[in-house]
Amino acid sequence: MVFIKGNKYGELSNGFSGHHHTKRYKKYMRKIMIGKKYAKGFKNTEEMKLKKSISKMGDKNPNWLGDKVGYGGVHKWVKGLFKKPEVCSRCGEKNIKLDLSNISGKYKRDLTDWEWLCRSCHMKKDGRLKELYKNRKKWFEKRYNKKYKQKI
Q1: Cβ neighbour number for residue 89 with a 10 Å cutoff
Q2: pLDDT tens across 37-53, in order?
Q3: What DSSP character marks residue 58?
Q4: Is residue 136 part of a domain?
Q5: Domain of 116?
Q6: Total domains in the fold of the chain
Q7: Is residue 141 in some structural domain?
Q8: Residues 33-56, buried b or exposed e (16+ Cβ, 10 A)?
Q9: Is residue 60 part of a domain?
Q10: For 90-117, how does the pLDDT look when each residue is reduced to its tens digit (9 = 90+)?
């Protein structure tokens, strides 16, 4: 490696930057690459792409964590396999935002342990709606420094 003064990044150079291959060398490389599978410009067929994709799915993937995956990873995995319906699975309301809700609370990689709920049903199921109503008085008084009067 040779250090070139004024190199853009102040890095080492291989001493070959700025040089070009000769016509003779290019002709030689073309001759060698004829018929090679991985020569520049090789395209995989759709069948081959599908086989490669399937060969790295699930637990065959080197990045697969199995049951050691975190909260976000399980949600992402379930969202990819468990398609979102148009209605809430509890109240049946249409055209609303739906959340992915875990039934058992154990966050397992089991699609039968998940359901799509509207925000309201999800908060009721988790008990967050009760907490919200219970704590709104404290929140209001803290935020506005006034006594909370419930509107009827």
Answers
A1: 14
A2: 665 666 788 999 999 98
A3: G
A4: yes
A5: 69-146
A6: 1
A7: yes
A8: eeeeeeeeeeeeeeeeeeeeeeee
A9: no
A10: 888 888 899 898 888 888 888 899 999 9
